[in-house]
Design goal:
The protein is mostly helical and 127 residues long. The protein has one domain (2-26, 50-126). It is built from five helices and no strands.
Length: 127
């Protein structure tokens, strides 16, 4: 039981690290236009959405994959709990950061729960 709890904690920390790393990397790789407002995604160019989506999806994937590797039982619920944790953060961002509806829907539907499941499947295929 203790190892499963550690799996969730480590999974969340790994996912958050991957998420933040990709956000920072994206800010360095994709130049922002003049007068760019990072807190209003309604005015972003399409290229400015690439790294936030990748950060959300790969953060949830990495966290669920690591959690599934560490867990000794209940790997699927643990992996999905990581996806749900990040989904809650994604929903919170919807209220904090105005964004186009297409991005909100894509992000919330594709980047969290499916990536949690994929992280679990990648571990179980290996085993």
């Amino acid at each position: 039981m203790l190892r499963n709890i550690v799996a969730v904690i480590v999974g969340v920390l790994v996912g958050m690290s991957v998420n933040m790393g990709l956000i920072i990397l994206g800010g360095n790789l994709i130049p922002v236009p003049e007068g760019f407002d990072p807190m209003n995604a309604l005015n972003w160019e399409l290229s400015n959405f690439i790294f936030p989506f990748l950060a959300h999806a790969l953060g949830a994937l990495a966290g669920s994959l690591v959690a599934s590797l560490i867990a000794v039982s209940y790997q699927l619920p643990i992996a999905l709990s990581i996806g749900i944790f990040f989904l809650i953060g994604g929903v919170a961002m919807v209220f904090l950061l105005p964004a186009p509806v297409w991005f909100i829907c894509t992000d919330l539907i594709v980047a969290y729960i499916p990536m949690g499941y994929l992280g679990y499947k990648l571990v179980t295929k290996r085993a």
